[in-house]
Design a protein that fits this description.
Layout lengths: L1 H12 L5 E6 L2 H13 L18 E3 L8 H6 L7 E7 L1
Antiparallel strand pairs: 1-3, 2-3
Length: 89
């Protein structure tokens, strides 16, 4: 629930050039972050306008970043970490 509250507050807190970076360590956390960045919702389908476009508060920046094999050898706990970044749309 804390992660959901945090993500819901981010569009209002970010400046125009600000970026949101979230590191998730569990697949359930990552699913919430990924879905919120993509649709602005945690469940269900987003509402579409007349043309079929959806209005989302954030825009994905780059690809998801995962640790390299070398990093996992040095820090085994990093194996499940995923970094996602977004900015205001």
């Amino acid at each position: 629930e804390v992660l959901k509250e945090f993500l819901e507050q981010m569009p209002g807190l970010l400046s125009e050039e600000g970026r949101l970076s979230v590191i998730s360590y569990h697949s359930l956390e990552d699913r919430l972050v990924k879905r919120f960045i993509r649709t602005g919702l945690f469940s269900g389908e987003p509402e579409k306008d007349f043309c079929g476009n959806i209005s989302v508060p954030l825009k994905k920046v780059g690809k998801m970043i995962i640790p390299t094999r070398e990093e996992i050898k040095v820090n085994n706990r990093a194996r499940s970490a995923k970094l996602r970044a977004a900015t205001l749309k």
